[in-house]
Amino acid sequence: MTALRPERDSGTAGDQGSSYGQPYGDSGAFGDGWYEESGSGESGDEYRPPLADDETVALRVPQPPARRTPAGTASASAGDGPVGGGRAARRKAAKRRHGRRGAPRGPSVEAEAEGTAKAPLSRVEARRQARARKPGAAVIASRAIGEIFITTGVLMLLFVTYQLWWTNVRAHAQANQAASDLQDDWANGKRNPGAFEPGQGFALLHIPKLDVVVPIAEGISSKKVLDRGMVGHYAEDGLKTAMPDAKAGNFGLAGHRNTHGEPFRYINKLEPGDPIVVETQDKYFVYKMASILPVTSPSNVSVLDPVPKQSGFKGPGRYITLTTCTPEFTSKYRMIVWGKMVEERPRSKGKPDALVS
Question: Is-catalytic flag, 334?
Answer without folding.
Answer: yes
